[in-house]
Design brief:
mainly alpha
Length: 114
């Protein structure tokens, strides 16, 4: 029997959200695995809260399940809305909104490639 006291609550929460979103899209674990390139075993472990997903894995899952990355984390702990990272002066981005828009364009272009 799995001792749930040793599971990281953040992993359990993210796994629950992943399972819900995957089922909403009516995808099986093998189908999600094929679309994301993440093994079925890793997806199964992640959904049960026994695996910490990497940022790259989570990003592929978000692109496939059409969810912003915050979908998996926004409700974990209350905090102010995240803002964009500090923009170096040499980048042609004037404001944090420009940065957020650039990030969204990058995400949208990745979704189109899938």
């Amino acid at each position: 029997m799995l001792d749930t006291r040793k599971l990281n609550p953040v992993n359990v929460y993210i796994g629950f959200k992943l399972s819900c979103r995957r089922n909403m899209f009516k995808l099986s674990l093998p189908e999600l695995s094929q679309k994301t390139g993440i093994s079925i075993d890793d997806l199964e472990l992640a959904e049960s809260g026994r695996l910490t997903l990497t940022v790259v894995q989570l990003w592929h899952i978000c692109a496939t399940l059409e969810a912003p990355i915050g979908f998996f984390m926004d409700d974990i702990i209350p905090r102010p809305k995240p803002t964009c990272f500090e923009v170096p002066e040499y980048l042609p981005l004037e404001t944090k909104d420009d940065c957020d828009e650039a990030a969204q364009r990058f995400y949208d272009s990745y979704k189109k490639k899938k």
